[in-house]
Amino acid sequence: MLSYVFSNEKVRLKWSDIAISLLFFLFGLFIFNAMYRVQVDMFWHMRSMTIVIFDKSELFRPSYDAMTRIASYVLGFFSRKSFALGYVCFLSLMLVLKYVSLRCISIDYFSRQGKEERAEFWLLRAAIALLCLGGHIIAFPQLVSGYWQADVLRMNVWHNPTTVAVMPFGLLLFYFGYRTVQEKTLKNFVILFVLSILNLFSKPSYILAWAPAIFLALTFIRADEEGNFSLNFTLKRLLIAAAVAVPVVIGIFYLKSVTKSVRDNVIISVPFAIQSHLLHIDFDRNLNLIAERLFGSCFSVIKGSWQTFWYLVFYKPLTLVCGLAFPAAAFCVSKRKKDGLFVFAWLTLLISFVIAFTLSQNTVHRTHLNFTWQIPVAVAALFLAALLNFFSDEENFPKLSYPAALTIGLFLLHAYSGLLYLQRLIFTWSWR
Questions:
Q1: 420: exposed, middle or buried (Cβ count in 10 Å: 0-12, 13-18, 19+)
Q2: What CA–CA distance (Å, rounded) separates 289 from 147?
Q3: Residue 259 in contact with residue 357, Cβ under 8 Å?
Q4: N or C: which end of the chain has fewer CB atoms below 10 A?
Q5: What are phi and psi of 65, to 5 degrees?
Q6: Residue 382's closest CA among 416, 431, 353, 349?
Q7: What residues contact residue 307 under an 8 Å CB cut-off, 6+ apart?
Q8: Secondary structure of residue 159 in the 3-state scheme
Q9: Per residue in 130-164, is it b (16+ CB within 10 Å) or e — as a string?
Q10: How far apart are the C-alpha atoms of 344 and 350, rounded to whole Å?
Q11: Rounded distance between C-alpha atoms, residue 247 and residue 267, angstroms
């Protein structure tokens, strides 16, 4: 089945992968059961889904959490009493699927370059496992403030069930988007369509960034068999892009001007989006805690223009550096800076940031930061692309240069920070 989906006979799981998957499933049962008991997101998602399944006519209605709702009901043996058990089992299976997806992607990526043995390298396999467990923003902001819900750059958001559910489908959508840029076959487009549906009914956030990224890539980028990209700007392609983009922009502003629900709920404004970030409890509290730890109690409350200055000049640049240190270093040391997968990952993340800091919601949903939830999936895809690019460079192995060793060290810091966060969850039963 896997070899058929990837159109590659070499994409097969080993017995060791089955054993690791079982361990991930058991770990998922433990961690998601704990998260359900101590954190708001999982509990309230559970509550809303339970209310829906009281009415069987509502069970299969389309929505952003339809997959989680239906799968949890099935795995809970079609009973409300065991629905919570099905809920935890489903999220654990999604964690397993995330590992399997990353493993299959790595095998396919390297085998197409004629480097099958590199996919089995123990260091790469360990890094993939750490991506599933420990990938996180490097913990300096958290260690200074003691407040671990620091920013949206982390890739493992254990407390949010829809992010857990969408992660494997988002990573597969990212990779097959790149494959479609390489090979524009009917099969690849069908796979993209199916993965898009799975994303939409798990958590639609990543589609917001992926859709414009894949459109730009298919229009202006060519990728050869080795994965190297080249830009292809022609008048015809520019006209095609304009023919699609201009009506979309006009449609957005038309809806904004005539539809009260859109006008009241979706705001297209950089200052308004930044203000929404500052109003969010996580950002506000973390800014104040960091300021208090670094500069004393006189800075414990930063409001108004000073809060905005602190956020833009210190906090946001720091979290970007701490969140993207490994992929940035991997890009700097890479000999293949035109690796199509790596470039596509950076493009998707850039669009994710543009969305996060130009769009915001008004009214009661303003502080939910719903237009930032594409970033965790985009960051996970970027880390994956950075790992594959790094391990594909023959000069990095078997003897690491100093820059390459530093890059590995940064990855381990990301992993360690994620493990520290897990330790906090397990031993203190606190998600912040």
A1: middle
A2: 8
A3: no
A4: N
A5: -115, 25
A6: 349
A7: 278, 284, 287
A8: coil
A9: bbbbbbbbbbbbbebbebbbbbbbbbbbbbbbbbb
A10: 10
A11: 19
Interior/surface letters 366-389, b for 16+ CB within 10 angstroms, e for the rest: bbebbbbbbbbbbbbbbbbbbbbb
For the record, the structure tokens of 269 come out as 């404004």
What is the Cα–Cα distance from 273 to 284, expressed in whole angstroms? Answer: 14
Place of tokens 């596509």: 344
Q: What mean pLDDT comes out for the span 199-219?
A: 88
Residue keyed to tokens 């390297």: 110
Contacts of 320 (CB under 8 A, 6+ apart): 153
Tokens of 301: 């409350």
pTM recorded for the entire structure: 0.90
Taking CA atoms, 85 is separated from 32, 95, 355, in Å, by 10, 16, 36
Structure tokens at 215: 């459109």
Tell me if the bond preceding 398 is cis, omega within 30° of 0. Answer: yes
295 Cβ contact list (under 8 Å, min separation 6): none
CB atoms within 10 A of CB 258: 9
The pLDDT of residue 137: 87
- Calpha distance 116→111 (Å, rounded): 4
Given a cut of 60, is residue 7 above it in pLDDT?
A: yes
Are 171 and 97 in contact, with CB atoms under 8 Å apart?
A: no
